[in-house]
């Protein structure tokens, strides 16, 4: 008998902690996280036919076509480890991909799109006050975890610096890019009735529990839900 699967899409802008949530949800739900970016890199490395096509598009400065990304995903989810579902982070990025994803669904699947909401101003404040040590990788924060001597690492005395992608304008641009990218997808998923929002400016564990309660365990295979009880 076919068991129903959970197909979960995570959406979230900079600082939403999608990666962290995907990791935690993987453990709770015992379904794999699938990154189409990693799949494509593997295909390219193994020089498969699809990999070579993708590499050609990248070398021409294009984005890898929806057709290829969809094909790679379609093949991946036929693996046995996806029999109870999978988690997607970074896919779909276009309406074409969203439609292709839907074509992989079965009637009894639970398909949920979770958008982790953050407050851009708070994320920007947190990220721009971050200092990292080039020597040992320690992380400081000019607002909370200050180094004892300004600009110098407590542990190894190396110079502290802001990462290039921690600069305010860069982060604002990432928020804009996220909004532009997600807008058409959001309205599409909203119309499908599968979009749910979860507030992300809280400890990661709380966000995870919120997502799990949104998933509403009804319809989830018993094997996968037993740990949550
Ligand atoms: Zn250091």
What does this protein structure show overall?
The radius of gyration is 20 Å and the shape is globular. Helices cover 45% and strands 16% of the residues. The chain folds into two domains: 6-118 and 183-228, 3-Layer(aba) Sandwich (Rossmann fold), CATH 3.40.50; 121-166, no CATH class. Helix 2 (36-45) crosses helix 3 and helix 6 (120-128) packs antiparallel against helix 7 (168-192). It has a five-stranded parallel β-sheet, sandwiched between helices. The chain has a three-stranded antiparallel β-sheet with strand order 6-5-7. It has helices at residues 18-29, 36-45, 49-59, 66-76, 95-103, 120-128, 168-192, 204-215, 222-225, and strands at residues 6-12, 33-34, 85-89, 110-117, 130-133, 139-141, 160-161, 195-199. Strand 5 and strand 6 (139-141) form a beta hairpin. The longest helix has 25 residues, at 168-192. The protein is built from nine helices and eight strands. The protein is an alpha/beta fold. Mean pLDDT is 88; it is low at 218-229.
Each distinct ligand: zinc ion
The Cα radius of gyration reads 20 Å
The end-to-end distance, rounded to whole angstroms, is 24 Å
Q: Report the average pLDDT across residues.
A: 88
Strand content: 15-25%
CATH architecture of the largest domain: 3-Layer(aba) Sandwich
Structure annotation, total helices:
9
Global structural class? alpha/beta
CATH class designation of the largest domain: Alpha Beta
What is the overall silhouette? globular
State the CATH superfamily name of the largest domain: P-loop containing nucleotide triphosphate hydrolases
Profile the largest sheet: 5 strands, parallel
Find the CATH topology of the largest domain: Rossmann fold
């Amino acid at each position: 008998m076919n068991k129903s699967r959970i197909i979960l899409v995570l959406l979230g802008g900079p600082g939403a902690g999608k990666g962290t949530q995907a990791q935690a949800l993987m453990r709770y739900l015992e379904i794999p996280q699938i990154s189409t970016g990693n799949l494509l890199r593997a295909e390219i490395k193994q020089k498969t036919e699809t990999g070579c096509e993708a590499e050609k598009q990248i070398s021409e400065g294009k984005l890898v076509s929806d057709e290829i990304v969809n094909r790679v995903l379609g093949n991946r989810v036929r693996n046995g480890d996806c029999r109870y579902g999978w988690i997607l982070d970074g896919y779909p990025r276009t309406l074409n991909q969203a439609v292709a994803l839907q074509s992989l669904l079965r009637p009894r699947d639970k398909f949920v799109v979770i958008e982790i909401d953050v407050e851009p101003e708070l994320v920007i404040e947190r990220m721009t006050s971050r200092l990292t040590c080039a020597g040992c990788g320690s992380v400081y924060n000019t607002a909370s975890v200050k180094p004892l001597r300004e600009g110098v690492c407590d542990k190894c005395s190396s110079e502290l610096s802001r990462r290039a992608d921690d600069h305010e304008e860069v982060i604002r641009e990432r928020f804009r890019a996220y909004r532009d990218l997600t807008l058409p997808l959001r309205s599409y998923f909203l119309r499908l009735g599968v979009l749910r929002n979860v507030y992300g400016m809280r400890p990661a564990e709380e966000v995870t529990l919120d997502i799990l309660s949104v998933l509403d365990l009804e319809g989830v295979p018993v094997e996968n839900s037993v740990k949550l009880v």
